[in-house]
Amino acid sequence: MRQPMVLRLHASGIPIDWLTLEEAAVLMTRPSEGGLVWSDGEGAHRLHGGTSSLTGCQSYIDIPEVMGVAPPTHAMLAFEHTGFNRMLCKYREGLRCAYCGDLLTRQALTIDHILPRSRGGRLSMLNAVACCQRCNSLKGSRTPEEAGMALLLKPFVPTMAEVLYMTRPRHMTPRQLWYLKAQFRNASLRDYLSEALAA
Ligand SMILES: [Zn+2]
Fold first, then answer.
1. Residue 147 C-alpha to ligand 1 middle, in angstroms?
2. For 90-146, what is each residue's pLDDT tens digit?
3. Helix, strand, coil % in the chain, rounded to nearest 5
4. Ligand 1 mean position, distance from CA 166 (Å)
5. Are 13 and 77 part of one and the same domain?
6. Structural domain containing residue 126
7. Which end of the chain is less enclosed by CB atoms within 10 A, N or C?
8. Residue 24 vs residues 8, 9, 19, 50: alpha-carbon distances, Å
9. Is residue 152 part of a domain?
10. How many separate domains does the chain show?
11. Which pLDDT value is given to residue 189?
12. What percent of the chain has pLDDT over 90?
């Protein structure tokens, strides 16, 4: 997500998703459809439209950084990421190996079953971590205890706010971050990712 995005929240503050500026403009021009209740960071972006043949003036619309909507636009309000997602697993670890802490690309990271598959371990957000190829091979089909390899983080199931943070646009603003952080539930995400961001 390279272009600026708008953070959409339920009016009560629960995050829903990231919108493109164009999607946000639709909500601004047709508020009855999107249930727009409030916005914050007004005028952060300006989208230009067509030029009026009568006045010669070009139309525009100012887009905020954050939009609060009601009623819920879709079922994602109840979203808790209970399934497994490779990309989120890697972002959850801050793109670091969960065993040695090395910072890697998404492509270079592998997925390790903490309790090995051969021992009945399921592929879930709680039983999987992202790690480097070397640590994955070293651990093999052993538990971390058996292999003498400590996990640097406690795996967790991310909340919607945490998912939106992990998949954040490149140009996420401090204001958008403030709204998301208010909804973080997993302390390890705070510590681990703030360290990853500082690196
Ligand atoms: Zn490693």
1. 13
2. 888 888 999 999 999 989 999 999 999 999 999 998 999 999 999 999 999 999 999
3. 35, 20, 45
4. 21
5. yes
6. 86-147
7. C
8. 9, 12, 6, 18
9. no
10. 2
11. 58
12. 40
Task: Say if 18 falls within a structural domain.
Answer: yes
Residues 6+ apart with CB under 8 A from 198: none
98 C-alpha vs ligand 1 centroid, how far in Å?
7
pLDDT digits (tens, 9 = 90+) for 141-181: 999 999 999 999 888 888 888 888 887 777 789 999 999 98
Please compute the mean of the pLDDT values over residues 30-55 and round it to a whole number: 84
Residues 50 and 126 reside in one and the same domain:
no
Instruction: Tell me how far the alpha carbon of residue 89 lies from the centroid of ligand 1, in angstroms.
Output: 15
Q: Do 126 and 69 share a structural domain? A: no
**CA count, 13 A, side-chain hemisphere, 59:** 9
Q: Are residues 143 and 194 in the same domain?
A: no
Q: Cα–Cα–Cα angle for 166, 162, 185, nearest 5°?
A: 150
Report CA(158)–ligand 1 centroid distance (Å).
22
